[in-house]
Amino acid sequence: AAGRNPQAAASRPAETWQTGSAERPLQLANLLELEEAAAKVIPAAGFDYIAGGAEDEWTLRENRAAFGRKQVAQRVLTGKVVTDTATTILGSRIAMPVIIAPMGGHGIAHVSAEAGTARGAAAAGTLHTVSTVATLSLEEAAQAADGPRWFQIYLTNDDGFNAELLQRARAAGYNAIVFTVDVPVGGNRDRDRRNGFVYPAAAAPRNFLDASGRPRAIDRGFKSRLDADSIDFVKRHSGLPVVVKGVAAPDDARLALDAGAAGIQVSNHGGRQLDGTPAAFSVLPAIADAVQGRVPLIFDSGVRRGTDVFKALASGADVVALGRPVLYGLALGGWQGVQSVLQQIERELRTVMQLAGAATVDDIRRTGLIG
Ligand SMILES: Cc1cc2nc3c(=O)[nH]c(=O)nc-3n(C[C@H](O)[C@H](O)[C@H](O)COP(=O)(O)O)c2cc1C
Ligand SMILES: CCCCC(=O)C(=O)O
């Protein structure tokens, strides 16, 4: 059931999908205003799929609201001046503590699909996490740009296929595997049910096509039973550092650590899975406490502003990952739109750092929040 949408796409006849095709930089005041603009470019059911969350979308809204309950301390007499926003994550140097979260089907948003996203990320000096259900194959996405890149895996019920996918990722030069564990089943997404949404043929995930173009493994669905052995499987077959993504409880963080995770991605999948759970930002401090700096923490779900990045890092995250705004930037401006989105949040972060007396990313991590 978890793989229902992409699976349906693989067997649908060709159809036209009139989505974004512009290639231009974007003039942005902030990332929040992108959603309304993107709704005019992406076909309605595709837009709902991207923008929506599970059930009442309470957690989707709470992901934003929670940032409003912690405050940044203004510090203007420290004598510090922002030097740069660069940082290192799992051995990769990136220009800002912001990366791109894995999202399926970039072809839903723009004709360049993941090639545009990868190029935009590289132009901004950061990395893109390519999804299992990406429109382009992991090899095509890798060829689109130089620089560090991560591959996200959903384990299917076909372990031979899973092992092959991990080996392909290693061969294509991916630097880490992001193993997503919060989709043992697809969430209850009312908008998609109402729209009868399935991935359009234009976004059918090519990782599942065999040499003769026939769909493979995706009809077996994604694994529901996930545990320490699953993490070990991903480690063994990839030979790469494994980030366990979709951790929202300290006990899952401890379990992932014991199973050999090289990183933990605190996330509630952007409010798309279990509605009624706390904001990802609300559970971050307790997870950081459980992890005790033993592995890096990546944080996502609801990040839209430089202040959000600052607050997440001050709460224990090493980097944050950005979801929906990247697809909106891609829809509106192709690779240049993605670059604009990343540059905008970096610009905001720099200003916040200066006003909060943090000269570097490490300084942010040493800063306490109010509230
Ligand atoms: C359209 C869409 C598709 C997604 N597909 C995937 C996916 O294939 N794999 C995955 O691990 N997470 C997926 N996610 C979740 C994101 O990685 C991330 O957790 C979430 O979008 C972060 O929240 P934000 O959009 O509020 O920034 C998807 C999210 C969206 C919006
Ligand atoms: C059913 C999983 C497909 C991609 C995904 O993770 C999402 O839409 O959130």
From TrEMBL:
Glyoxylate binds at Y49, Y154, R189, H269, R272. FMN binds at residues 102-104, 131, 152, 180, 245, 267, 300-304, 323-324. PROSITE patterns: FMN_HYDROXY_ACID_DH_1 (PS00557), FMN_HYDROXY_ACID_DH_2 (PS51349), TAT (PS51318). The active site is at H269. GO terms for molecular function: FMN binding; oxidoreductase activity, acting on CH-OH group of donors. Residues 23-371 form the FMN hydroxy acid dehydrogenase domain. It comes from the Bacteria. Its cofactor is FMN. Gene3D superfamilies: Aldolase class I. InterPro entries: Aldolase_TIM, Alpha-hydoxy_acid_DH_FMN, FMN-dep_DH, FMN_HAD, FMN_hydac_DH_AS, TAT_signal. Keywords: Flavoprotein, FMN, Oxidoreductase, Signal. Belongs to the FMN-dependent alpha-hydroxy acid dehydrogenase family. This is FMN hydroxy acid dehydrogenase domain-containing protein. It comes from Thauera linaloolentis (strain DSM 12138 / JCM 21573 / CCUG 41526 / CIP 105981 / IAM 15112 / NBRC 102519 / 47Lol). The lineage of its organism: Bacteria, Pseudomonadati, Pseudomonadota, Betaproteobacteria, Rhodocyclales.
